């Protein structure tokens, strides 16, 4: 997905910087007058900004969620405050999706996620997975993705969240002792 975004932008400085924090820092400094879109897994963004705190402007930082066993899990508001503090940005954008699903939900920095119309996000009671919660009540996030025609169309995520409105939800964090998930776990 990120490869497709880079191809669409056509910028000659696009790239992947998995563990190359020094190179990424140099690149960001060199492009300081340009609009920068930094898309990364949450723990890697924290690692980078701890090593290179900076005052970004004209930039979007989008975290893809989760620590994947590399750090202690954090609730989203605390995570975003830390990233804002170390990046100098007023907002942190966020992607929410599962490796098993084709669709993602996005937040433009307000902590409220929106999904495409073919995705339904259900917030279920913490003690009864068959009972949906009312708006504003914390529960576990379950996702139905109708884009998954010939594969898994439903995921019980083990994430904690709450419904904000009919078409928006908030991600608060992970259930304790939940299974590690994510396509970035395949990186060696």
Identify the notable features of this structure and list them briefly.
188 residues, alpha+beta, Luciferase, domain 3, five-stranded antiparallel β-sheet, 9 strands, globular
How would you portray this structure in words?
There is one protein chain. By secondary structure, the protein is of the alpha+beta class. It folds into two domains: 1-91; 115-175, Luciferase, domain 3 (Roll), CATH 2.30.38.10. The protein contains four helices and nine strands; from the N terminus they run H-H-E-H-E-H-E-E-E-E-E-E-E. It has helices at 2-9, 21-30, 42-51, 76-87, and strands at 36-40, 59-63, 93-97, 104-107, 113-114, 119-124, 138-145, 154-165, 168-174. The protein has a five-stranded antiparallel sheet, with no helix packed on it. Helix 4 links the parallel strand 2 (59-63) and strand 3. Helix 3 packs parallel to helix 4. The longest helix has 12 residues, at 76-87. The two termini are 19 Å apart. The model is unreliable at 183-188 (pLDDT under 50).
């Amino acid at each position: 997905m990120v490869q497709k975004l880079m191809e669409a932008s056509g910028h000659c400085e696009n790239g992947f910087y998995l563990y190359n924090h020094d190179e990424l820092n140099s690149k960001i400094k060199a492009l300081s007058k340009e609009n920068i879109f930094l898309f990364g897994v949450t723990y890697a963004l924290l690692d980078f900004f701890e090593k290179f705190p900076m005052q970004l402007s004209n930039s979007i930082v989008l975290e893809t969620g989760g620590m994947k066993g590399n750090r202690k899990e954090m609730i989203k508001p605390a995570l975003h405050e830390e990233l804002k503090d170390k990046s100098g940005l007023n907002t942190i954008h966020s992607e929410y999706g599962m490796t098993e699903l084709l669709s993602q939900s996005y937040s433009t920095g307000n902590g409220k996620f929106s999904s495409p119309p073919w995705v339904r996000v259900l917030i279920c009671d913490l003690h009864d997975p068959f009972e949906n919660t009312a708006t504003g009540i914390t529960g576990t996030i379950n996702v139905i993705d109708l884009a998954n025609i010939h594969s898994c169309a439903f995921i019980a995520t083990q994430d904690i969240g709450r419904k904000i409105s009919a078409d928006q939800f908030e991600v608060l964090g992970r259930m304790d002792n939940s299974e590690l998930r994510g396509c970035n776990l395949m990186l060696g």
